[in-house]
């Protein structure tokens, strides 16, 4: 049983690390870099990124993140309460990240896509689309990065204590 517990915690830790790294990369590199660019570039690049990220690799990691955290909690029931407590904290943080994505980031991504191809938009419209998207998306992404990083830390502590 210890092998199953450790495997579950390690699997949850790996996918959480991948997700936290993705959100962190956007928070500290991609979005600050795009912030220095013109409206047309920002809208066009984010439209392409939002299309590209909907791929099997990302979706498996994204969906399995809270699922594997829940599995880790489930198989570790009966372990010392400190282990289970850290794993539950990781699960809560993973669910927060998922909820922020579904309720915050995805609607902004959908609105960005609905604006249509950036090449067909007038300058004033591109500026409006950017204003309605960028600041909110950046805030939501920072929350996702923090929540995912906290989940990762909690999983690591849970694994060490296991």
Automatic annotation (TrEMBL):
- Cell cycle listed as a keyword: no
Q: Name one Pfam family in it.
A: Anthrone_oxy
Residues passing through the membrane, by range: 6-31, 52-75, 81-102, 138-161
Alphabetical UniProt keywords: Membrane, Transmembrane, Transmembrane helix
Q: Does the keyword Membrane apply?
A: yes
**What is this protein's name?**
DUF1772 domain-containing protein
Give the species: Thermobifida alba
């Amino acid at each position: 049983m210890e092998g199953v517990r450790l495997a579950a915690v390690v699997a949850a830790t790996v996918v959480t690390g991948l997700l936290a790294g993705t959100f962190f990369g956007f928070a500290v590199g991609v979005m600050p870099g795009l912030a220095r660019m013109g409206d047309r570039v920002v809208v066009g690049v984010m439209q392409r990124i939002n299309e590209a990220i909907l791929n099997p690799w990302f979706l498996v990691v994204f969906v399995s993140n809270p699922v594997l955290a829940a599995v880790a909690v489930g198989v570790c029931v009966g372990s010392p309460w400190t282990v289970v407590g850290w794993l539950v904290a990781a699960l809560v943080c993973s669910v927060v990240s998922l909820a922020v994505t579904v309720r915050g980031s995805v609607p902004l991504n959908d609105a960005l896509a609905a604006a249509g191809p950036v090449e067909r938009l007038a300058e004033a419209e591109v500026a409006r689309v950017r204003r309605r998207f960028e600041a909110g998306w950046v805030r939501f992404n920072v929350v996702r990065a923090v929540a995912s990083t906290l989940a990762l830390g909690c999983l690591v502590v849970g694994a060490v204590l296991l």
